[in-house]
Amino acid sequence: MEAELIGPRLYFCCNCRNHVALHDDVVSKAFQGRNGRAFLFSHAMNIAVGPKEDRQLMTGLHTVADVHCGDCREVLGWKYERAYEETQKYKEGKFILEKSKIAKENW
Predict the structure, then answer these.
(1) Which of 20, 25, 51, 70 is the most core-located residue (most Cβ within 10 A)?
(2) Spatial separation of the C-alpha atoms in residues 97 and 66, rounded to whole Å
């Protein structure tokens, strides 16, 4: 008989295993990061947000801030602070975490 899952399903930093996001906060798994596939999250935890800067991304100009693991300081992705194109406004306040930098807890 399989054990029942207790508590929320979590993603953690691959480098230090610090919990950084909840599975329930995944908005999309169809994003591109600097190093390949990335997930868009509505929230992130145990992270530090760096300074804001304008970046030209595949979907246009955005103001973003790099997101670092709160424990080991590994860059995990970025936070969308501002989208200049109307069709991209839904990303504002959300987080890109790169698939190569995070892992799911066993579930």
Answers:
(1) 20
(2) 10
